[in-house]
Each structure stands twice: as C-alpha cells, then as structure tokens.
Amino acid sequence: MDFSVVIEYFPRLLEGAWVSLQLVMISIILGGIFALPIALARISPIGWIRAIPFAYIFFFRGTPLLVQIFLVYYGASQFDAVRESFLWPVLKEPFWCAIIAFTLNTSAYTAEIFRGAIQAIPHGEVEACKVIGMTKTQMYRRVLLPRAFGIVLPAYGNEIILMLKGSALASTITILDLTGMARTIIARTYTPMEIFIAAGVIYLVISIVIIAIFRQIELRQNRYLGTLSIKVPDKG
Amino acid sequence: MKFKKIALGSALLLGAALSSVSAQAADKVRFVTEGAWAPFNFIDSAGKPQGFDVDIARALCAKMAADCEILTQDWDGLIPGLKVRKFDAIIASMSITEDRLKVVDFTNKYYSGGLRFMGRVGETFDLANLSGKTIGAQRATLGAQYLEDNFEGKADLKFYDNQDNVYLDLVSGRLDIVLSDELPTYNWLKTSESGSAFEFKGDAFMKTDNIAIAVRKSDTQLKEKINKALDAILADGTYQKINAKYFPFSIY
C-alpha cells in the first residue's frame, strides 16, 4: 500500500467529487419538483389519473438505474430521429443524459415517499380542516403539505444518500464523477486499493454532511413535537 | 455415531480435494482475456471467448502441455486481478509500457501494434488543431494515455469502459475521432455494419508497440515457459497459421 498516490491525485479526486455533487444536487432538485405532482396524482380519487403515476413509478422503481442510464445514453442515440431532433445537443452530452436518468429515477422514489407522508397524516387533522371550512387547496397548502414535509424528512434524506451512491453509475457513460475519476487514475497508477479507499472516504464525508444537514432541518421542522412530551411533576 | 462418520467422511473428501488442487496447481495455467477487442478477443454467440489472443493461448498451452483455463475479465480489472492471483497470465492484446512494467512482468511480444486515429469519411483531420473535436478511447489503454499526455486541454477527451461503447458513440456522432490500436480498428472498418462510413485518419504511430502476455513479477518460471512455447509456435508455423486466419499480412 502506497498512499502517496492519494496525495498526488487528491485534487483530481475532489474535482470528481464536485461533479458527483452537481449530479446529485441537480437531479434531486428536479426530481423533487416532479415528485410532488406525481405524488398528488397518485392519491387522486379518479382512477385513470392514479394509473399514470402508478405505471411511471412501477417502471422506474422496478428496473436497475444502470439500465435506465444506458437506455437514455446509448439507447436513445441509436435512432436517427433523436439524433436529428432539437434535443440532440442535450442528449449528446453524457452529463445531461445522467441528469435525465437520475431525475426520472429519483422522482419516482420521491413521489412514493411524498405519497406515504401525505397518507400518514392522521385523518383527524384532515377532518378538522374540513370542519372549519377550508377549501381543498387551503387544506393542502396550510396543513397537509407542511405536515407531510416534516414526516418525509428522514426518508427523503435517505433517498438523497441513495442517489449519491447511485451517481457512481455515471462513470459508465464517460462522466468523470468521483468513481470515474478514481477509475481513470487507477488506469495510470494501478493502485486500486489506495485510490478506491480514498474515493470511499470522500463519499462517506459527503454522506455525513447530508445526514447532518437533514438532522438540523428535521429538528427545526418537527420542533413542535418537543412540546408534546408530557413533563411529570416531581413528587417531592 | 452416524454423525461422526459423516464428519470423518467429509473431512477425508475435503482433504482429497485440497491435495488434488495443489497437485494440479503446478501445471494449471489460468489465462485471462477481455472479450471486447475483436478480432483479438471477443465473446462468440455461445458465450465463449474467441479470437487471435485466445487461439495463441490455446497453442501455447498445447506446447507447454499445460492444463489451461481461459477466463474473461473487464479491461481495467485485468492487472489488479493478476496481482491478487485471480489468474496467472493476461493475454488480452496488452502493450508493454513503462507504467505496467512497474507492477507486472511481460513475456516476449506475440505481435506488434500501433495507434491510429479514425473518423468519419471525408471529414477534415488536422492533428495540430483538434480544438472543438471530441476524441474517444478506451480507458486504461495506450491510446487513452496518449490522448491524456498530448491532448489534455486541446480537445474534448472521453474515456470508455470498453471499445464497443467507443464504436457506439462514434456512430451516434457523440465522438468525432477515435484513437485506438490500428489492427482492431482495421478489422472494425472492414467487418462492421457502420464501418464503411468511417476511415483511418493520418498514419499509424508508436509502431514499436510490443504486445505481450503479462505475468506476475514473481512468476519467472511461468514467464520462461511461455517464452519457450512462443518460440516453438513461431518456429513450427502454428503462429503463422493463426495469423493468416485473422489478417492477410504478418502482424508479428
């Protein structure tokens, strides 16, 4: 084991880590935006509106992320129609192909998490909204969505960490993310142990930061729960 | 009692299995190839490795009178796998390079290669001015290293896990130019469905590129055995027969 290669190539590993972070952040933000309407459609009382997000979520949760990336990157480019379309400047770039695949994937998972959270709100709170005469929009905006946001946090933080690890698959379509960079460095130094350990540590550090941020948001968002704890007066 | 018997029986069996492994280990050689570098090594429709490298490995085994196994492994896992004894010799069209010599040992060459650019027919190609062009190569190859050393910052470089994906992106138009070994490119241009739309760009270079079999540094015995067998198949015409099966000219 010779960790001097890690020191030598550390700046390049950080460059790769920055690409990984960009991939995760952009797809998580886009995925979150798409997830909300998907989740709301998923709990619609109307059958056919429910069916579309159901099929979407079923496909993206039921197939490997690697297959989805290959379908977007190598699959779409097989067709002349795609290559001649206005979308080609975007689909030509591996970075955007990865963003598309990751966004589709994470929005499916996130929609399920949102749906679960909305449905986890005690029915009494929904009834209370109705009793005081809120419209459906008011009910969602004032009560259901803010409540769901608090419930969703732990599961959502989990999804972001899964996405961070999934982003390593971007290296299969020539993107120099943290994993891609590590593999490129190893191609030159033939020190897989040292470089992969270093890359693993960087992934861990990013995960710890994500966990810490979510812990803080959780504490803030759910601080009202603190008032629920009953203080037993001292008997003395 | 019954349990004891079973335990004793299986212990004996295990012992027998272990001793037969160590007895075999002396003349069992595990060759490994990549399987994505036609016509040198590729996977046939039955899922078996085939190609020039594989034929040479078989001929060498016959000469060494060794019991051989031919395995496949992704390109960038070949040298790490050799180091941790997952196999004994890499016959995957690997060039002898200084970097590789630091970690593994090579036999004498079994053919010589060279690098050559390839691009779309009719497109202009100026080695001195490649800015704005996207050039692709397989990661961890001589071509990729050459691009990194000479064109970093001067062109957009892309590295792939295997050569098949390089070809896919050349055909789709994501790549303007590909740098690879001359012989596999020659084969792709001639035999593949899309090959006719592409051509060599510029002359071949690094023609002193010697392609050899990699073994562990500690395995001097195996290295000598392979070298002897190589000399033998070159002398008795076996090599030439295999060569003619794939190329109408000598590649030695």
TrEMBL record, chain A:
The chain crosses the membrane at residues 20-41, 53-74, 86-105, 148-175, 195-214. It comes from the Bacteria. GO terms for biological process: amino acid transport. GO terms for cellular component: ATP-binding cassette (ABC) transporter complex. The keyword Cell inner membrane applies. It is found in: Cell inner membrane; Cell membrane. Residues 17-214 form the ABC transmembrane type-1 domain. Pfam families: BPD_transp_1 (PF00528). Belongs to the binding-protein-dependent transport system permease family. HisMQ subfamily. PANTHER family: ARGININE ABC TRANSPORTER PERMEASE PROTEIN ARTM, MEMBRANE COMPONENT OF AMINO ACID ABC TRANSPORTER. This is Arginine ABC transporter permease protein ArtM. It comes from Marinomonas foliarum.
Automatic annotation (TrEMBL), chain B:
This is Amino acid ABC transporter substrate-binding protein (PAAT family). Keywords: Signal. It is found in: Cell envelope. InterPro entries: SBP_3_CS, Solute-binding_3/MltF_N. One of its GO terms (cellular component) is cell envelope. It comes from Marinomonas foliarum. Belongs to the bacterial solute-binding protein 3 family. It comes from the Bacteria. Residues 28-250 form the Solute-binding protein family 3/N-terminal domain. Residues 1-25 form the signal peptide.
